Amino acid sequence: MTVQGEVNALLSADPTFSGIVPPEKIYSVDSPLVTEGFAPYALITCISNPKTKFASNRSFEEQNNVQIQVWLPLDSEQVDTVMQVVDTVMEDHRFYRYHEMDGKDPTIDLYMITMQYRRNRIY
Which residues of 60-69 are buried (b: 16+ CB within 10 A; e: fewer)? Predict the structure, then answer.
């Protein structure tokens, strides 16, 4: 399973998150264009999966970096809830947030939350 697929499954399975963003509106590939009437909406993007540690010319660790973006109506009172739930779900699976920004999307009248997570996985 890809990292995007794994994160999609984790968020879809969480009852609080899927109560805000229905699983059919959580995308990891081939997402439709975000429009105001389509919110709430989530997009999961793999940023990179580099090999990070090596021994005897073989890698033994990779770093999974994933970005989760959530669009909500501007008047939504669920921004803090979304951020807390995503953090909890991701941390429960050893992904840790290293970057976050939120605010009005500059291109449409929706509130956008962008969170980036990293997981180091030894194999």
Answer: eebebbbbbb
